[in-house]
Amino acid sequence: MPDGTHPVMAAVRAFLQDHPGATSLRVAFSGGRDSSVLLHALAQLRPQGLEAWHVNHGLRPDAEAQAAFCVRVAEALEVPLTVRNVIVLDDASEGPEAAARRARYTALREGLGERDLILTAQHADDQAETFLLAALRGSGPEGLQGMRVLRREGDTWLGRPLLAVPGESIAGYARVAALDWYHDPSNDDTRFDRNFLRREIFPRLAERFPVYGSLARCARWQREAVDRLASLEDKHLPGEASLEVASLAELDLPARRARLRAWLRAQGLRPPGHARLEEFCRQLEVHGADRNPELRWADGWMGVYRGTIYAEAPDGKPAAPGDVMPWPPGHARLTLPDGRVLERAALEALGVDAQEALEVGFRRGGETVVTPAGRRPLKKRLQERGVPPWAREHLPLVRRRADGTVVAILWPDGELGP
Questions:
Q1: Share of the chain above pLDDT 70, in %
Q2: Those residues with Cβ within 8 angstroms of residue 212's Cβ, 6 or more apart along the chain or in another chain
């Protein structure tokens, strides 16, 4: 069994000491070698709140066998395990790998908050591969900075305790601890870029250069440069959830990109790639705010309305637009899927009958809303309140079940009213 001086144990212990306030430590456990090493090392230290999650994408014939293997390993280590099945949507705009990743992290964030951590097992060799892949794709400083030991992931945090540990140390730990792991056959498929580099290119480079350490250092220097630039940009940010288009008007293109990246990071979003961000800036330059340009990428969305830029995470919607939640008479409150609570008393203050059968749903088109000035088309009311077009489909509407008339709207600021 590896002792406390082993690089893996030392790295995991140091990570836990650096982040003592976490209430939940959720290991993303695939059953592969690296995540098996991470889970085993954590199980030796027994930190409070340790758990493992296996996300089953259902994309391979052996997916159930892999999940069953993870269950056996977790039971042997006496670590609670949750197996979460997800559906990976076929999104041509981001590709199958990115779609699977998004579904995986959406599942892993489930139920976690500000003081919790998702832990993944990427190590120093993975960092070098990430850097070289980004360089080969022509990435800028954001892409070349590689992975961070700790970064924001929605409402929670993602940690990588092993990121500075060489791959050979990971392999050595698995050997000394006599670990079994599940071999994912897709990792042998050199049609995937990362597998091609790992199996065909890096072994040749390593014959002549200290490739893993050198590339990991390059990534670290890029992170330092990105952080320095971000600290300078932060001084110019408004400290709000929106950004005025006019504030970008006097900046050249590189400065606009830098300002937008810094602002997106301040919203907890990973910025899009260089080319897509540049296209968004070009649309702003050519059309200004007149055509309400939008940009969607795997980790977020950004759009313009009335001269103001807004952004949100891809899963930031309260529910699907087709969802309808009945609110029968006699029920004092209704809890929405995102955790917000609506109170009948607030509706009664608006003149809604306490015994009226209601429902909460989303815009379908053609609705009217009851206001102090009488009935108004819902579309006009939303325009009057300055709700951006993309947000209108996701505002919870309280309707009469009898005729569908909207009696109240849960506005973006949390107000419940007409």
A1: 91
A2: 124, 125, 128, 166, 167, 202, 206
Q: Are strands 156-159 and 294-297 parallel, antiparallel or unpaired?
A: unpaired
What is the rounded CA–CA span in Å between residue 258 and residue 69?
Answer: 45
* Vertex 229 angle, CA 226 and 231, to 5°: 110
Non-local CB neighbours of 96 within 8 Å, separated by 6+ positions: 59, 88, 90
Distance CA 359, CA 367 (A): 14
Query: Would 7-215 and 236-312 be classified into the same CATH topology?
Result: no
Residue type, 140: G
DSSP-derived letter for residue 24 is E
All structural domains of the chain with their residue ranges: 7-215, 236-312, 325-417
Measured CA to CA, the distance from residue 84 to residue 251 in angstroms comes to: 46
* Structure confidence at residue 240 as a pLDDT band (50, 70, 90): low
**CATH topology classification for 7-215:** Rossmann fold (3.40.50)
Whole-angstrom distance, CA of residue 196 vs CA of residue 349? 65
Joined tokens for residue 96: 């199958």
> What's the topology of domain 236-312?
Chorismate Mutase Domain, subunit A (1.20.59)
Backbone angles phi, psi at 27, to 5 degrees: -85, 125
Our measurement of the distance from residue 312's CA atom to the centroid of its chain's CA atoms, rounded to an integer in Å, reads 11
| This prediction's pTM | 0.68
166-196 confidence digits (pLDDT tens): 999 999 999 999 999 999 888 888 988 999 9
* Each residue's pLDDT tens digit, 298-308: 778 888 877 88
Burial of 61 (0-12, 13-18, 19+ CB in 10 A): exposed
- The residue type found at 228 is R
Q: Which two tokens stand for residue 279?
A: 């296209």
**Which ranges of 150-270 would DSSP assign to H, the alpha helix?**
167-176, 193-196, 202-206, 211-234, 253-266
- The distance in angstroms from the start CA to the end CA of the chain is 65
Q: Residue 210 and residue 124: Cα distance in Å, rounded? A: 12
